[in-house]
Amino acid sequence: MRLGIISDTHGLLRAEVHQAFETVDLIVHAGDVGDEAILDELGLLAPVTAVYGNVDVGALRRRLPQVAEVAADGFRIVVTHGDQFGIPRPEMLRAVFPEADVIVYGHTHRPLIRDMPDFRVVLNPGSAGPKRFDLVPSVAIMETEAGIPPRARIIQLAQ
After folding, report:
1. pLDDT tens digits for 82-112?
2. How many Å apart are CA 65 and CA 74, to the nearest integer?
């Protein structure tokens, strides 16, 4: 299965996301969506699993959970924005979600793929929304196949 992983759109869905996600089977959004229309637009590409982030209020907060789970090729994927933990770190997230094979989070705007010693993965796709700090906007692609550890990569978007 091929997953498109995105976070921190903050109301902006860049055209490059459509290209990056054109062949995905599932899209995971790790919060700070910013506008419900983004989820609807992503839903035209593939089914979407999303959570709310600290900037998501009103209809988004009512529509989305704080933590979601999805299965892909037998892997248990947990999705959270992570703001409820302050500044989330991979080791801390593993302690909070010990049964997850993959943990996807956002909030920091910093892309990260951490392969843990037990073959589990903690992933932050970075921020796909408006450019902030000195960070290049990004998303991630993850491929899963039963019996093989998940493989992920970060895709930088135009600045």
Report:
1. 999 999 999 999 999 999 999 999 999 999 9
2. 22
